Amino acid sequence: MSDEPEPTSYQLVKCNTVEDFYRTVTRYMAPRETNAGGRSVFRGVGDSDYLLCPSVFRQDPARSDVDLEVSDLIFFLRQCSISGMPLPPMHDDLNSAIYVHNDIAFDWKANHACSWPCQHVLPFLALAQHHGVSTRLLDWTYDPMIAIYFAATSSMEHVATAFKLKHGEDLLGFNRDRFDPLQLAYKSYLPWSDSTVPKSLAVWCTSVAAVKATGGSNESNLNTVELVHVPRSLAPNILAQKGLFTLVRGFLGNTPILCVDEAIAAWRCENEDAFNKIHPTEHREVVKVTLPTKLVAGLCELLWQLEITPATVMPGFAGAAKALRWAQLAYALDKRAQPYLQKGDSLL
């Protein structure tokens, strides 16, 4: 048990079994009438130390290069247009910034820097974020099982990367047949104690009501968190993943608040009575549930039984191919976890 101090901006729940982790995470998806705060949103991460901080700020939390963010978005949208990808309807000024001379784009960036990101840009920013562009948005899902999937997948890739660094070969190509998978000799080859491997994975949870209570889309409010959606017809994976995004707008003094839990906690400090109506005192508005990394293979086996795999989370040929590596990694980490080799598997 760690001696780390209890966090102040969220509730930490540590689980030691896959079953407890599954029950704890899914408990927050209770029906509206029984779940304080109503509908919840979830975010899965392969390293429980990861903060609820957008990718554009992770290297340097003090970084706030709006000009670069705007340039990245315009470049992304231009490439979408060049390749014939459909885009949502856009304001004339954004349309001109994409399709007209660079001077127009420069003027557009200058006009929108102080209010970045403005409301009519958010769907495009969400589309870019979903496809890997670094933005100040953060990915979430309405489905706790999807969050568990992303936590498990990221966790396995952490272990596979550490294994390759340690042994100089890919985990899936390693000659494991000379080892009994239940013997310590084989298990010692797996880098569970390696400093590069996160000790635990995690799923974050907060309620839609808690997010909306901070001010919703009112740009004049400080310490607000917004929910951002992208048209699902433009990104089929978002439909399968029940995906959405959050955007934080807030300050603590002169310091910008970047993390969702910190923004919600700051708003609660200023509006305690209002928050208590949403979340009774026995509930916390943001929760982080963790599971030791060494149990990730069993977690993947559970996900497979529930048909939460790359093939269902990312429908298409790429998802089907990724499902094979996903299952093989789980088997390589623990031969007792055989998600795709079980007798009677309907997928074979």
Description:
The protein has 14 helices and 9 strands. It has 348 residues and is of the alpha+beta class. The chain folds into 2 domains: 9-54 and 137-342, no CATH class; 56-135, no CATH class. The protein has a 4-stranded mixed β-sheet. It starts with 10 loop residues before the first strand and ends in a 15-residue tail after the last helix.
Describe the secondary-structure layout:
Elements: E1 11-14, H1 18-27, E2 40-45, H2 66-82, H3 92-99, H4 102-112, H5 122-130, E3 137-141, H6 144-167, H7 184-187, E4 200-207, H8 208-213, E5 224-228, H9 236-241, E6 243-249, E7 251-252, E8 255-256, H10 260-270, H11 272-278, E9 286-292, H12 296-305, H13 310-313, H14 317-333
Parallel strand pairs: 1-9
Antiparallel strand pairs: 2-4, 3-6, 4-9, 5-6, 7-8
Helix pairs in contact: 2-3, 3-4, 6-12, 6-14, 10-11, 12-14
- Measure the end-to-end span: 42 Å
User: Rg from C-alpha positions?
Assistant: 22 Å
Low-pLDDT parts are: 31-37, 178-186, 216-221, 339-348
Largest sheet: 4 strands, mixed
Give the strand order of the largest sheet, numbering strands 1, 2, ... along the chain.
1-9-4-2
| Secondary structure tally, helices | 14
Average per-residue pLDDT, rounded, comes to 77
Strand content: 5-15%
Helix share, percent: 40-55%
Give the number of DSSP strands. Answer: 9
Pfam families: FRG
Organism: Novipirellula galeiformis
Protein name: FRG domain protein
InterPro entries: FRG-dom
